[in-house]
Design brief:
By secondary structure, the chain is of the alpha+beta class. It contains 15 helices and ten strands. Strand 1 and strand 2 form a beta hairpin. The chain binds protoporphyrin IX containing FE.
Length: 399
């Protein structure tokens, strides 16, 4: 029987190529307790989807807060902010979730998202204008990040001169709350995080005085009626993370896959589905955490009330009962978009349309401007350690 103790999402091999192992888990141990995560893991598509769809039994309350791994000294330093994210929309259940989600969704209307496409195309064009003459570089650091970070900054209302500051601090707070760190490093990250919170506070205060046409102004206008000050600060901080990290990670994973499959450049009419198939096969998010609110019986295993659970969308996206021949990349796979890399149910990613728009547009522009893109031969690839996401540390390419 397969040894579920090998399930260690933080291990390098696990981030890079866990799929044979996950397939065996789906067959032999569809639900098991992982020592590494101190959590029960659901690996089958149907179970993952059912759990997402049942927030009464699988609660999001506190599920994002990886501050479980923070040292006592770091907690002391963070003070009241040690529970940061406790009012974030992805970290709460109805009825609070319903209220927050309604407010946030006001900013992500189809019209507002579509209006960002042209700007995103221009940001990519501008960047490539500078980068193309170099003949090669690191796609992750030099191409994938800047346009998404800049678009998100624009959307939120961060002035251009503060973008670099925000980028560095967002990286730090992601590491502090969402990836395990040694105690010394935690303290340095906590310091950086507090500086960042002050910055976001200042942004909210300035929009309260002088509103503009941006997310911060819209959310700030709801303080006192629909939202609290803290909820707005958490929303802004976290959406800056969503835009800074997840989309570039997914783009890096996607370009690597397309180059390895010999499918570069992607014909524009196939870009939409290619994005879905890339998200299915090399998802930038590995799953979502939930707490069981009651004892849950599943495939002969009892998940005790109060247990943390990982809904492994990474495994679900390779489930052969839903996706034929799941380890094959099929650019025209008809049900590629059935993946749950954006989650599912009431917490389904509110930025999904914006994420998809960016990925498709980036593939189109990169394909037009760098049709000869190829991997630098012999360069070993590695992934950033994280228990929630998959992203390359670097992707050396030439064109
Ligand atoms: C490829 C890019 C992205 C991926 C893979 C991704 C993934 C996810 C996932 C899996 C969830 C569900 C969390 C859960 O159920 O616990 C989620 C929720 C969320 N995402 Fe994204 N996301 C992406 C891009 C974005 C962008 C661009 C934004 C905003 C600009 C964003 C904002 C959010 C927010 C606010 C939520 C919480 C929604 C709720 O709880 O109701 N995401 N995302």
């Amino acid at each position: 029987m397969i040894d579920a103790a090998d399930f260690d999402v933080g291990a390098a091999w696990h981030v890079a190529a866990p799929y044979d192992f996950l397939r065996r888990l789906r067959h032999e141990r569809p639900v098991f307790r992982s020592e590494h995560l101190d959590a029960y893991v659901l690996t089958r598509y149907a179970d993952v989807r059912a759990a997402y769809g049942d927030p009464r039994r699988f609660s999001s309350e506190g599920s994002l807060t990886i501050s479980r791994s923070l040292s006592a000294e770091t907690r002391l330093k963070l003070g009241e902010h040690g529970s940061f994210l406790s009012s974030f929309v992805a970290n709460v259940d109805p009825p609070v979730h319903t209220r927050l989600r309604r407010s946030v969704s006001r900013a992500f209307t189809p019209r507002a998202v579509a209006a960002l496409e042209q700007r995103f195309r221009e940001l990519n064009e501008e960047l490539l204008g500078r980068v193309v003459p170099r003949g090669g570089g690191d796609l992750v650091a030099e191409i994938a990040h800047a346009p998404s970070a800049r678009l998100t900054a624009r959307f939120i209302g961060v002035p251009q001169e503060d973008e670099e500051f925000v980028k560095n601090h967002v990286k730090d707070w992601f590491q502090l709350f969402l990836s395990p760190q040694p105690p010394d490093r935690q303290l340095a990250l906590a310091e950086s995080f507090l500086v960042y919170l002050d910055y976001v506070d200042g942004l909210v205060a300035s929009r309260a005085k002088e509103p503009r046409d941006d997310f911060t102004s819209l959310m700030t206008s709801l303080i006192g009626t629909e939202l609290s000050h803290r909820e707005v600060v958490e929303l802004i901080s976290t959406i800056l993370l969503g835009g800074n990290d997840t989309v570039p990670n997914q783009l890096g994973n996607s370009v690597l896959r397309l180059l390895r499959e010999g499918l570069w450049p992607v014909p524009p009419e196939k870009a939409r589905n290619a994005v879905e198939e890339c998200m299915r096969i090399d998802g930038a998010s590995l799953g979502s955490f939930r707490y069981a609110t009651t004892d849950v019986e599943l495939h002969g295993t009892t998940i005790p009330a109060g247990s943390l659970c990982l809904l492994s969308t990474d495994s679900a996206a390779h489930d052969e009962t839903v996706f034929d021949d799941p380890e094959r990349f099929l650019i025209e796979r008809p049900n590629a978009d059935a993946h749950m890399t954006f989650g599912y149910g009431i917490h389904f990613c509110v930025g999904a349309a914006l994420g998809r728009l960016q990925l498709r547009t980036a593939l189109e522009v990169l394909g037009e401007r760098l049709p000869g893109l190829r991997l630098v031969p012999g360069e070993p690839l590695s992934y950033r350690p994280s228990i929630v996401g998959r992203g390359l540390t670097a992707l050396p390419v030439e064109w």
